[in-house]
Amino acid sequence: MQWETVIGLEVHAQLSTESKIFSGASTAFGAAPNAEACTVDLALPGVLPVLNRGAVERAIRFGLAVGAKINSPSIFARKNYFYPDLPKGYQISQYELPVVEGGHIQLQIVQDGKEQEKTVRLVRAHLEEDAGKSLHEDFQGMSGIDLNRAGTPLLEIVSEPDMRSSAEAVAYAKTLHTLVRWIGICDGNMQEGSFRCDANVSVRPQGSEKLGTRCEIKNLNSFRFLEKAIDYEARRQIEILEDGGAIQQQTRLFDPEKGETRAMRSKEDAQDYRYFPDPDLLPLEISGSWIEEVKKELPELPQQMRSRFEHDYGLSMYDALALTADRDNSEYYEAVAGKLSSDPKLCANWVMGEVSAYLNNEGKSFDVCPLSPAQLAQLLLRIKDGTISGKIAKDVFRQMWEQASAESISWKNRKEVDESLADRIIESQGLRQISDSSALEKLVQEVLTANPKSVEEFKAGKEKAFNALVGQVMKAARGKANPAQVNEILRKKLTE
Amino acid sequence: MSLSLDDVKRVANLARIEISEDEACRTLTQLSGIFGLIEQMQAVDTSAITPMSHAQDVMQRLRADAVTEIDQRELFQSVAPQVEAGLYLVPKVIE
């Protein structure tokens, strides 16, 4: 039987506020244990939560970016369960009337060279507080509790079960990850747990409309784990069904070391959270004028920018996707393409190629790129006007990078840009291409005289020998000859 | 809707409240009375009425996103039964 995997994702995005969602304690990562846990976060008697405007504002921003409905009033609810890192005995979350309802995410998937588009619908996105952390080792039969994370604002984004493969789920998670950083609501740091995924996975016979029993896989904190966990889980469920068994609805954990999922708790002992509206918090009203204000400040979204790049610059979906991976990347590209409007594709190749590679190598992002877009554009102009070859350009680029890095100023902070950097390197090292045809002809002749064997082979019909001769000429010219010109002269001389 | 003794015990367990058999029976009678009232109320036609989520007809006030708390860990931990390395210690729990 052919099986179809059905996946829905719940993503917890930690909102990038300065202070917590219901208290004035700091949310900065990496503080000493409990240094950022105030009376509200500790749930001392008599304290009351006061909602952070910044957290609500970020939720609205997200809602607008995904074309969702912003609910007003929106209601906070208590989700009751007992765990020591949740001192109140309940988590303040939302149940009925979440801030964000509906909406959708548009995916572009490039797989095996094929470009596909897909829409994933969202159910909702609601505000809630994070719990603290429990440490179970090193305390001789006791657990250590750090409540710094307690009360950190989260936006839980819930999708419909619209994905059909781990590749689609990863594409969705990546698109969402780009979006939340793009609109500045979450730093997206997965190592620090700022962006965590839970996957709901079920399988059903191909063509069936009815959803199978699902399992929820918790806390997947990398895209690779998300993919592996879904693939493993789908295989596990198919095996059970093919052996005539039934799927138990379960919460499961992914073990990255073994590459498998294992049961955490089954439905029988599943939590009954007994949600009810939190009497400590009044209904949240979001006025139309507030929504308008947020809308005005919303940047051009990655989706819109991608189609603009495809349209205006004639880029492929693949290129447009790569260049809109984050706002700094797209801003850098647009600055280069603005300087060299005659060849946006060449600009794209270099920004995605050399610049990205050098930045990656140094663990940097585009906002702190040492080389200015104008300097790169000048180098690319020299490729276009035939002053240097693409190969030599890479060498010039390396030197430009080194010189620019030595000043340790990022391009955005540079007051004066030395646009002639590429030209100076080219001139001072005599890297200009030999385009004088008489000089080239002389070189070609020398190579032909020195390689009679290759000449003979070519005349006997071996095309390979021709390439060998081109290589010899390029070598003699120390890479500075124009390959097209060399080809032409060589062929002319050989057929004379 | 009729409530069973098992329901009462389950809810008590979820709420981590220890109750005796006797208390459970009394609670069952009391809760059943409340459910009776709810049943009566549910017979009323409320289709044109917006659900009330709070007793007061006012909206939530918001605070500006600013850090206003300072580190008072030492003070807070002075009343904690057991602390170590800045952590609150509790009987071991592993889910």
TrEMBL record, chain A:
Coiled-coil ranges from the UniProt annotation: none
Record-linked PROSITE patterns: GATB
Source species, domain of life: Bacteria
Stretches assigned to the Asn/Gln amidotransferase domain: 331-494
Cited InterPro entries: Asn/Gln-tRNA_amidoTrfase_suB/E, Asn/Gln-tRNA_Trfase_suB/E_cat, Asn/Gln_amidotransferase, Asn/Gln_tRNA_amidoTrase-B-like, GatB, GatB_C_1, GatB_Yqey_C_2, Gln-tRNA_amidoTrfase_suB_CS
Catalytic activity: L-glutamyl-tRNA(Gln) + L-glutamine + ATP + H2O = L-glutaminyl-tRNA(Gln) + L-glutamate + ADP + phosphate + H(+); L-aspartyl-tRNA(Asn) + L-glutamine + ATP + H2O = L-asparaginyl-tRNA(Asn) + L-glutamate + ADP + phosphate + 2 H(+)
GO molecular function: asparaginyl-tRNA synthase (glutamine-hydrolyzing) activity; ATP binding; glutaminyl-tRNA synthase (glutamine-hydrolyzing) activity; transferase activity
Enzyme Commission no: 6.3.5.-
Keyword Nucleus: no
Pfam families on file: GatB_N, GatB_Yqey
Protein task: Allows the formation of correctly charged Asn-tRNA(Asn) or Gln-tRNA(Gln) through the transamidation of misacylated Asp-tRNA(Asn) or Glu-tRNA(Gln) in organisms which lack either or both of asparaginyl-tRNA or glutaminyl-tRNA synthetases. The reaction takes place in the presence of glutamine and ATP through an activated phospho-Asp-tRNA(Asn) or phospho-Glu-tRNA(Gln).
Family as reported in the entry's similarity comment: Belongs to the GatB/GatE family. GatB subfamily.
Oligomer status and interactors: Heterotrimer of A, B and C subunits.
Protein's UniProt name: Aspartyl/glutamyl-tRNA(Asn/Gln) amidotransferase subunit B
Organism of origin: Nitrosospira multiformis
Chain's gene name: gatB
UniProtKB/TrEMBL annotation, chain B:
Assembly information from the UniProt record: Heterotrimer of A, B and C subunits.
Protein name as it appears in the record: Aspartyl/glutamyl-tRNA(Asn/Gln) amidotransferase subunit C
InterPro entries: Asp/Glu-ADT_sf_sub_c, GatC
Gene3D superfamilies the record matches: Glu-tRNAGln amidotransferase C subunit, N-terminal domain (1.10.20.60)
Function noted in UniProt: Allows the formation of correctly charged Asn-tRNA(Asn) or Gln-tRNA(Gln) through the transamidation of misacylated Asp-tRNA(Asn) or Glu-tRNA(Gln) in organisms which lack either or both of asparaginyl-tRNA or glutaminyl-tRNA synthetases. The reaction takes place in the presence of glutamine and ATP through an activated phospho-Asp-tRNA(Asn) or phospho-Glu-tRNA(Gln).
UniProt gene name: gatC
GO biological process: glutaminyl-tRNAGln biosynthesis via transamidation; regulation of translational fidelity; translation
Enzyme Commission number, as recorded: 6.3.5.-
GO MF: ATP binding; glutaminyl-tRNA synthase (glutamine-hydrolyzing) activity; transferase activity
Source organism of this protein record: Nitrosospira multiformis
Keyword hit for Nucleotidyltransferase: no
